[in-house]
Structure prediction request, 164 residues.
Amino acid sequence: MKALLQAFDQSDWQEMTVMIGGDRLHVSRLGSSDGPPPPSAPQPAGAVPPPAPEAAPPPSAPAASAPPVSAASAGSNGAIEIPPGTQITAPSVGLFWRAPSPGAPPFVEVGSPVAAGETVAIVEVMKLMSHVTAPVSGTVSAVLAENGQAVEFGQVLVVVDAEA
Prediction:
């Protein structure tokens, strides 16, 4: 639970609800005086619960689903420009770590050579570390997430220009 709350604090998400077994965690930045949504009725085994309604973020807040923008990768219209190459994506939601431990040098930098299977980053969720590896050999052409940033499943983290 602590890791989930830290991920929420470090994200630009407006609201988060997590259910694990019978436990439910709901946090929100929306400031509703109504409190968290009421617990849902128990579902029969195999039933798919209806999707939770999504609250629209305030007009001045960035969209919660917007991918992170790196200063080096943002175009003139604010959209992320992903360079050509092999995209390495997040294997799950979690926190993106560029180094194996605080104070250690990053796994890769832009321009670093990488071998297929080499670790390029770590995604942490609930104290479980998932090593993100390069599927091809080549040169790192972009790192699109900031150290310690909350990332989404499938979000492009690193781009590798594969060797010919």
Notes: The CA atoms of residues 2 and 133 lie 27 Å apart. Strands lie at 15-20, 23-28, 86-89, 94-97, 113-114, 119-125, 128-133, 138-143, 150-151, 156-162. Confidence is low (pLDDT under 50) at residues 52-76. Residues 2-9 form the longest helix (8 residues).
